[in-house]
Write a structure and sequence with these properties.
mainly alpha, 445 residues, 8 strands, two-stranded antiparallel sheet
């Protein structure tokens, strides 16, 4: 691989991965804040209003960090990936512009109203401002997903004389079936992150005997939401996304499962180490015929292996695709087990007194972030060697005049700046958690 291409890929991978730590939290919390405001409106319990104010402050910090780390990615399309921008800008420019002009401004405007306008709004009006923040954040997510989905499964375009592509049908672009399954799966992942963060902080408060009533409320909402969305990640969203991959990117499915040979009754690998050189799985623990059934609902269905495709069309890092996918699926399975157990404890009235379960929830806090990152790595690495699947190879999309040295210099700069931003984020969030919901209540009055 060209050294400059490698640097540009690492650069964008780093900025995108770091950036998405924040939107997944804001999109997840946006939904849960609406839930808290709804409970407060229906019950008249001020505790839930204070809880919503507290999480809105966490949301605000994460939102700002998402904006700061997201803007450079827009510029990277021009600086690091100019050939891609010239080729595909006529299509992806539509959804990216709509995300900025409509969704982002809707979210940011009503976030200001929600945070600073409560005294001037009625309870119902304040609920609507929370809903508008939620709607704006999830609409923003859709436009970004629609952009990526077009790169995974291009539709609604036409080639023009200069070799680039232009948008032929806006509705084909936004109604791309890949986009809707990917969107459902991605937003479910964001909701899992927000739910586990809320449950984790709730468990922390209950264990510390401080803000205990708020901690119980966070646990109730967080555990139930985490259970619902963890199950939805498995089915139907994960199942639907998997079928899209099998239909439109069968070589990616083969890489995800390290399936080297085509054949009927393909097994599902639970644990094993891909040996790419010898084209086999070492130390495998498999479920016979399960991959065929999950993919085509037939035990003896033939699933294409990597041997069915020219090697130059294989994803260029089989190991990373395989391990990313299995980390995502493994963590998702663990999330289901944890939330079922926590929900049983909650239903039986024993959750608040079970130190084992509370500590388990506290310690799960970072893992939804890891699972979401692994999922995105699976999608983006699995698409390789294509930048736009079937239309443009990754090696043809980067800026040829930006050398590896220039790219490395800016990458090091971003590493330093984002380290400072990460420390600042943790400091601000820790300060809010230590102050607790009582500080949010005092600020509101």
């Amino acid at each position: 691989m060209d050294s400059a291409l490698l640097v540009h890929r690492l650069h964008f991978a780093f900025t995108a991965t770091f950036h998405y730590l924040f939107p997944q939290l804001t999109m997840g919390l946006a939904l849960l804040i609406v839930v808290l405001k709804t409970i407060a409106l229906r019950t008249g319990d001020e505790l839930y209003n204070n809880a919503a104010r507290f999480w809105a402050r966490i949301f605000g910090i994460s939102f700002v960090m998402g904006v700061v780390t997201g803007i450079p990615m827009e510029f990277q399309f021009g600086t690091n990936w100019s050939h891609f921008s010239r080729f595909a800008g006529g299509v992806i420019g539509q959804t990216l512009a709509m995300e900025g002009m409509f969704a982002f401004f809707l979210e940011s405007s009503f976030l200001g109203l929600f945070l600073f306008g409560e005294k001037r709004l009625s309870p119902i009006q304040h609920w609507w401002s929370a809903f508008a923040v939620f709607f704006g954040s999830w609409l923003s997510g859709f436009f970004i997903i629609a952009t990526d989905a077009w790169m995974q499964h291009p539709v609604g375009y036409e080639k023009v004389a200069d070799g680039s592509v232009q948008l032929a049908s806006f509705w084909d672009l936004v109604l791309n079936p890949w986009a809707w399954w990917q969107y459902a799966h991605n937003m479910g992942g964001a909701a899992v992150t927000g739910s586990f963060v809320m449950a984790s902080i709730g468990a922390f408060y209950v264990l510390g005997r401080e803000h205990r009533e708020y901690g119980k409320a966070f646990l109730r909402v967080g555990v139930i939401s985490a259970l619902i969305f963890s199950v939805l990640q498995l089915f139907p969203t994960g199942d639907g996304q998997g079928k899209m991959v099998a239909e439109h990117q069968p070589v990616t499915l083969a890489a995800m499962e390290a399936l080297f040979e085509t054949g009927p009754g393909a097994p599902l690998v639970i644990i094993g180490q891909p040996n790419v050189e010898e084209k086999r799985i070492d130390n495998p623990f498999i479920v016979p015929k399960m991959l065929s059934f999950l993919t085509y609902r037939e035990w003896e269905a033939q699933v294409k292996g990597l041997d069915a495709f020219p090697q130059e069309l294989w994803p260029d890092n089989i190991l990373l695709v395989y391990y990313s996918y299995h980390i995502m699926v493994g963590l998702g399975t663990i999330f289901i087990a944890i939330t079922i157990l926590a929900a049983l404890y909650l239903w039986r009235g024993k959750l608040y007194e079970s130190k084992f379960m509370l500590w388990t929830l506290v310690l799960t806090l970072p893992f939804p972030f890891i699972a979401n990152t692994a999922g995105w790595m699976t999608a983006e690495l699995g698409r390789q060697p294509w930048l736009v699947y079937g239309l443009m190879l990754t090696r043809d999309g980067y800026s040829k005049t930006v050398s590896a040295g220039n790219g490395t210099f800016t990458l090091l700069g971003f590493l330093g700046m984002y380290t400072v931003l990460g420390i600042l984020f943790l400091f601000l969030v820790r300060r809010e958690i230590e102050a607790g919901p009582s500080a949010a209540r005092a600020a509101a009055h």
